[in-house]
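tokens incoming
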């Protein structure tokens, strides 16, 4: 009898889904080209963003061994939308021309944020990859909204702190490894994340006055800084207990 351990075949990679996502991305760019002039830099950026996204998904699935499930397909649809918005975020003239459509697409991406979690619960297909996929997309979406606000002149460069804070936390974990320890579930953390997205999206709406925009963005920055400070304090207090 063969007593060797059983090796499960790896799950197939979602090349069809990713190809459909690329086609949807191209369709959004073509539709935009009918409304405004797209520069070659915008198209190159869109291609580079989707290529990097595809590599990240493939690498994440290969390392985690998870299956690309129904909830991940919902997240993929939102990712295509976010990457499309990202490709336009660095062009001031394009953002001015498409101010209302851009804001409405941001609203659509925000509404879709909870759909993948709902699908994962309904289909019992939640996975570590899916949770990380959703979290990284949220962080990237927040950064893109910050860049768009800065490019439109609705906020100064300081608004990028909101989008870069999470990435700064991850980089700090390269040196202070105790920052990489898992955090307990937190309603406060989830609420503040949604607050950031809502605040940034509302600030993009053209009629919103600058005074209101600056006040809400400053409040968002204060709340986010406080949330990160609480998490860092928690991890610092528990760093010794987790050591072997």
């Amino acid at each position: 009898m063969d007593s060797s351990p059983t090796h499960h075949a790896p799950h197939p990679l979602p090349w069809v889904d990713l190809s459909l996502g690329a086609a949807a991305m191209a369709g959004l760019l073509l539709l935009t080209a009918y409304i405004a002039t797209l520069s070659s830099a915008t198209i190159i950026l869109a291609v580079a963003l989707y290529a990097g996204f595809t590599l990240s998904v493939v690498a994440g699935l290969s390392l985690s061994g998870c299956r690309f499930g129904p909830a991940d397909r919902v997240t993929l649809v939102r990712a295509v939308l976010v990457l499309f918005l990202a490709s336009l975020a660095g062009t001031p003239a394009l953002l001015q021309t498409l101010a209302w459509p851009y804001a409405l697409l941001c609203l659509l991406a925000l509404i879709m944020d909870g759909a993948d979690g709902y699908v994962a619960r309904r289909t019992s297909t939640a996975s570590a990859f899916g949770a990380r996929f959703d979290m990284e997309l949220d962080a990237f979406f927040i950064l893109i909204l910050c860049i768009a606000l800065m490019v439109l002149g609705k906020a100064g460069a300081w608004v990028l702190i909101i989008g870069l804070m999470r990435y700064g936390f991850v980089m700090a974990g390269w040196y202070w490894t105790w920052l990489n320890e898992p955090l307990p579930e937190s309603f406060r953390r989830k609420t503040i994340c949604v607050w950031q997205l809502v605040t940034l999206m509302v600030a993009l709406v053209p009629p919103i006055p600058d005074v209101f925009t600056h006040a809400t963005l400053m409040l968002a920055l204060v709340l986010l800084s406080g949330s990160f400070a609480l998490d860092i304090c928690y991890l610092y207090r528990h760093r010794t207990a987790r050591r072997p």
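note: The radius of gyration is 20 Å.
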